[in-house]
Amino acid sequence: MRRYHRGTVPFLHPTPTMTRRADRLFQIAELLRGRRLTTAQQLADWLNISLRTVYRDVRDLQLSGVPIEGEAGIGYRLSRSASLPPLTFTADELAALAAGARMLESWGGAGFASGARGALAKIASAMPADKRATLERLAIFAPSFHIKGDFSAQLDTLHRAIDARQVVRFAYTDVQGAATERRVWPLALAYWGARWTLGAWCELRGDFRNFGLEKIRELEVLETFPDQEGRRLADLLRHVNAKSR
């Protein structure tokens, strides 16, 4: 930071380092907005900075009046009473949002596609002209002419069943080619790049299973399933992580 003097009154001239730090402080506040609890390690990983820098930046934000609750070693959150400036996006962030929205339009169900288009339109309408131009000239596309319409409808049905916690029944052909009928508790959809899978608790196997959506037929939504310990999304994720080790 360079200090200049105009007459007898000192003033600060912002350097690139100051600007970068100001951007980082704003990013920290944005990352804490709307989250229940964020650890210092998560902030360090996301921003590619040291834990020491995180602690210093959070302390400086608190001292400047930003209502950040929590402490080192536990985690931080932004108070519900906090009022931050409206969201702004960098060119890279806008490109990422637009690319993600275009992929969902093509590879997601009708509900996802509509939501992606609507969100992108709202973001564009709130952006200054130069930012809107960044969105419009993004040369990343996700063609959809080869995707079957019934696949999108099936994806929407499963998405709604997960949200409503409803059992689904379907005919399924496994990797060995065996045909079975399954009743499952749908918990999550995962996109693997041109391929979707359903993560669920399978009543037939009495365990968690992943099902390729392209092998699901005769899909039917049934009754609501209970919020049962050991069969929740968190349990599914622990199961997947344990198998991947």
TrEMBL record:
<dbReference type="InterPro" id="IPR013196">
    <property type="entry name" value="HTH_11"/>
</dbReference>
<protein>
    <submittedName>
        <fullName>YafY family transcriptional regulator</fullName>
    </submittedName>
</protein>
<dbReference type="InterPro" id="IPR051534">
    <property type="entry name" value="CBASS_pafABC_assoc_protein"/>
</dbReference>
<dbReference type="InterPro" id="IPR001034">
    <property type="entry name" value="DeoR_HTH"/>
</dbReference>
<feature type="domain" description="HTH deoR-type">
    <location>
        <begin position="21"/>
        <end position="76"/>
    </location>
</feature>
<dbReference type="InterPro" id="IPR036388">
    <property type="entry name" value="WH-like_DNA-bd_sf"/>
</dbReference>
<dbReference type="GO" id="GO:0003700">
    <property type="term" value="F:DNA-binding transcription factor activity"/>
</dbReference>
<keyword id="KW-0805">Transcription regulation</keyword>
<dbReference type="Pfam" id="PF08279">
    <property type="entry name" value="HTH_11"/>
</dbReference>
<keyword id="KW-0804">Transcription</keyword>
<dbReference type="Pfam" id="PF13280">
    <property type="entry name" value="WYL"/>
</dbReference>
<dbReference type="InterPro" id="IPR026881">
    <property type="entry name" value="WYL_dom"/>
</dbReference>
<dbReference type="InterPro" id="IPR036390">
    <property type="entry name" value="WH_DNA-bd_sf"/>
</dbReference>
